[in-house]
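Subject: Interface between my chains keeps coming out wrong

I've been trying for a while to get a sensible model of this assembly. When I model each chain on its own everything looks fine, but I need the whole thing in one frame so I can look at the contacts. Pasting all components below, labels as-is. Any help appreciated, I'm running out of ideas.
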Amino acid sequence: MSLAESAGAGQPVPAIEGVGISRAFGGVRAVQDASFAALAGEVHALVGENGAGKSTLIKILGGRIRPDAGQVRVRGAAVLLNSPHDAHRLGAWTVFQELTLLPAMTVAENLLLGREPRGRLGLIDRRAMERDGEAMLAGLGIHHIDPLALVQDLPLAERQIVEIVRAITQDPSILFLDEPTSSLMEREVAWLFGQIRRLRAAGTAIVFTSHRWNEIVSIADRITVCRGGTNVGTFTEIGEDEAVTLMTGRRVGSQYPPRPPAPAGETALAVRNLSGEGVHDVSLELRKGEILGIGGLAGHGHRELFFMLFGAQQPTGGEIRLDGKPVRIASPRAAVRTGSGIALVPEDRKTEGLLLAMSVRDNMSLTILSRIASVGVIRQATEQRLCRGIMEMLKVRAAGLASPVGALSGGNQQKVLLGRWLLADCRTLLLYDVTRGVDAATKHEIYELMTRLAGEGRSIMFYSSDAEELAHQAHRVLVLREGRIAAELDGTGLTAEDIVAAAMRDRAA
Amino acid sequence: MAAPQAIATRRPRLAHAMLQSAPLLLSLAMLAASIVVYCAIYLASQHRLPGGFELTSTVNNTMPLAMAAVGQSFVVLTRGIDLSVGGIIDLTNAVAAVAIHDSPASMVGWSLAILAIGALLGLVNGLLVAVGRLQPILVTLATLSIFQGIAIRVLPQPGGAIPDAYGAVLANVDAPISLIYVALLVLGWRVFRRTRLGVSIFAIGNDEPAAAANGIDVRRTKIAAYVLSGTFSAAAGLFLAAAATAGDATTGNSYTLTSIVAIVLGGVSLFGGRGSAVGGIAGAFVTSMIVNILFFSHIDPLYQNFYEGLFLVLAVTAAAGIGHYFRRRA
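Reply #2:
Try treating it as a single job with all components included. I did that and got this:
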């Protein structure tokens, strides 16, 4: 597709354009009078905090949801997108942040959904489907994903790749990528950017969102900054500080708060020779007031370790001691109730722990209902006061305590979950990649919060896929490799490179 | 060319197929086990093995449930449920008893007309669910009663006469020709899985918003699932009429529950998107075998429901346990 020339000013007609777009969910205005345009053959980054309306805008331009007001134009012509199918017909494909793969179907079935190869009698040719799926993956340089595997059995990063492959093999003239890199490792990001450059050269308009600034500057031709549901400016050159200022409407200081001194206090959580699925012979100690970082490459037992400590997965051997007493954590319910309480905030907030249709208040007070009830009836004023306090402390951005959690942006949902455990007064907090896909300003809030909670004497075990973060935030970092502790690094003077090096060092060394 | 060493680490096609259809294999194993137990009990009480007569009557008795189970599968795979199956069987069975006369034209013409009636009743369900955006359980609970009411109106007293020739084709007592229908059902299902509608039904049962985001017409697919369910329930009504050589406007009532039992035994997930109608057919036969086993164990028929329920709980618990075990090992 060649660049379309406009009739008037000699400006090229945008491949896709949204003008004066608004959309509200419940009482929350997700997008408010936003305008945005992407040209053929450019990579256009949308940046903004969580809740700035980027995802909603992409969903509207991709035909997933309809705007309350405003107009979508494709190659200059006003269009009504009633479904993603309408957008597909106009050549606009989207990789959604919450993936849209079908879990109980195979990779090949997902890749070829709606364009299955037909054999005799017009029936789907399953062998050809397998072959085509394999060819699609191989054609894009992917050899490690089995086209016959069920999507539900793939790790998150591979699911993300399948979702991307499905969109880019449609020969899109317009491609939306909503947070495509948040679950990808560096090598996979490089692969994706290679694909993006190839599509750009072929004239595709590419819109993408990311919270990693270095990614944005390395690939984007133009950057549009969003704040509070509207676009506040489009730039070809902009520095990170300036962008963050625009995104937040205020100046953010140093990204990482000063680390409190390492505590010499007593041990809160002690783990001896813990083993189980994905975890081998792990021993560690977490002191009161300590932030213990857990690092390493994805898929090396971090998730399993965190789940075992939270009772969501059972170890086959080893011992866990909490405040010196051996404990058996049979379930998450037991974890929260054991001694001073162990709580987990996981990465995938939508499926783990939150009741999306219920209110912020209900979600926060869930585990303390018996404490704030008299004769079985919840004292509403107490509930209201406690939840309000936590909501303010965590700066949860919601229309009110009664808004359904499902209407909040991802980072705010995360805060609600953290709020629940703080209300339950859990003293040991397991934070599993909580900053993944979270914008810079919210990240900063989370760092400050961690520092503050540690200062109060709570113990924090913190896994992050971002080594930079661990190097700045943790008192100590344990690096896991193949389910074992491969290195223990002291936080003082620690750099991201040290952590990555420890994670990558092969077994022989 | 793809990198060969990467391919080598992959699971072979057969291993994938075995693992991914474990619930179906489990239901077939359950069927085999129930046949063995039945034969043993039969041998103990009759001092011979069951023969052609037993086979024929078992297959004939199971056909209506197998049909209803296939119909139910379509809807449950979309993550819905069709409680009106019993009402559709009642109504179509009643119409068959009243309308079918002893001429080839009448038999063929009315059979097709009755299947169309079933499709129409399913369409009502489908429209209410997909266009009216009502809960499937509410819609089909209401239409169950409505269809039952119309059935009583059509045939107030059990009766009517189904021509012998009709019975000879659909429920032949001399030879197990109904096995042909079983084979056709299995074959038909395998073909259906390779159609766009087949893929769409599984897709929306997997994840409705995701399916919609992939351009699948959720509304049309759901309607089609209920229409198919209605059509197969009507077929069940015809098979019942053929076997009984008469009609009864309450004969289908139990099929609402037993069709759900059959597909659960057959490994179809009530949460949609996972399972196979072939499993539902196997489940229907397992249910029949249990009835046979209870009969030859001389268990008081009054307690039949009790034992059936007990068995269902045990079977589902065992299936879940085995499934869990294999998933952990995989």
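Reply #3:
Confirming on my end. Residues 1-8 of chain B have pLDDT under 50 and may be disordered.
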